Amino acid sequence: MKNKLLTKLLLLPVVLLMSSTAFAQMTVSGTVSDANGPVPGVNVVVQGTANGAQTDFDGNYSISDVANDATLVFSYIGYATQEVAVGGQSTVNVTLAEDAQALAEVVVIGYGTTTVKDATGSVTAVTAEDFNQGVINSPEQLIQGKTAGVQISQSTGEPGAGIDIRIRGAASVRSNNNPLFVVDGIPLSGGNTSAEGDAVGIGSNAAKNPLSFINPNDIESISILKDASAAAIYGSRGANGVVFITTKSGKGARGSSWEYSSSMSIASVAKTFDLLSAEKYLSRAADFGFNVEERDFGDNTNWQDYIFRTSTSTNNDLAYSNNYGSGNLRATFGYNKNFGVVENTSLERVTGRINWNQRFLDDKLKIGVQSSISRVNDEGAATAASAGFRGDLLGAAYSANPTWPTSPDFDGTGGLLSPSTMLKYFQNRANTNRMLVNVSAEYALTSDLSAKVNIGLDESESTRISTASPNAINFGGGVLGNGRGSLADLNTKSELLEATLNYSKEFENSSLDILAGYSYQNFNRNGRNANAWGFFTEDMNQMGDAIESTANAIEAKITGDYQQYGFAGNTGGIC
Question: Which of 68, 163, 312, 416 is the most buried (most CB within 10 A)?
Answer without folding.
Answer: 163
